[in-house]
Specification:
- This protein is an alpha+beta fold.
- Helices cover 43% and strands 17% of the residues.
- It is built from 4 helices and 3 strands.
- The chain has a 3-stranded antiparallel sheet, covered by helices on one side.
- Strand 1 and strand 2 form a beta hairpin.
- The longest helix is centred in the N-terminal third of the chain and has 25 residues.
Length: 143
Amino acid sequence: MGTQTKIVVIKAKEIIYAGIFLILGIICIVLCIHMLGIGKQEKVKTTSKYVPGVYSSTISLGENTLNVAVTVDSDTISGVSIENLDETVTTMYPLLEPALNEINNQISVVDSIDDITYSSENQYTYIILHQAIKNALKQATGN
């Protein structure tokens, strides 16, 4: 019959070389995938100043306790408001609302709460509000 058996002789040296090249090839493919980022989602590290939300701090004016609420986005202070503000407080402390309005007007222009300017006539009102805002911003930054 016409079939002849063929014997293939493979030397151990050739098997070792083939195994080494196979391992090197796999390592090169893995490194290329890792370096080029194929199949890997790119993580964008954001460096935001604040955790967005509304943070509050309390101030005491005489017998009244007021909450100063600071609304922040990831990088900016959106606004400042006073909760629990009633007529008796505004009557006793008439400079409170104008000072708060002036702070809200300047907050969008300045980079930091420390850059807000105020007149010497209402410096104490500004200092009280400034400290309350700073306390609320400490919560917003996680410190």
